[in-house]
Amino acid sequence: MRLSFLTMALIVVSAQTYASTEQQLTECSVIPDKLDRLICYDNLAASIQGANAETSVKAIAPVAVAVPTSAAVSTTVASTAKVENDFGIAPKPVQEDVVDKIYLDVESIAEDPYGALKITFTNGQVWKQTESRKFSLKVGDKVYIEKAALGSFLMGTESRNAKVRVKRLK
Question: What per-residue confidence (pLDDT) applies to 99?
Fold first, then answer.
């Protein structure tokens, strides 16, 4: 009888503590300022840890919530709108003298065992084909190499529409 009375009392106290914690979480979640909201959650977590560390169960003290004025709300809304509009846009560094496409003359062509071309140009650059498809090229042809997506490069000729992905060796 005595054990069941203690158990029942413990259940009632923990239900009230849970309801109080849930109410405090709701109060913390409506705070518009990020730092104040974080402080509210930290205080709540510290009070819960303190209650768990003690042997007796105590009710958690309510956390003070500051209600923002209309001027503070409008400033917060304006700054939030700007942040949301800029979300996902990385600032692009300013680059001077950027070259997106170069024209080169083929000096020599070699083929590896897999059929990929290794092209040496008259300026000394060496490029290698990274795709497995056939790309016909002759010594003396004028080709261009342009930037493609994700830092890759494409090589092609003005006389036809075909391009092949390449990478620079030296």
Answer: 80
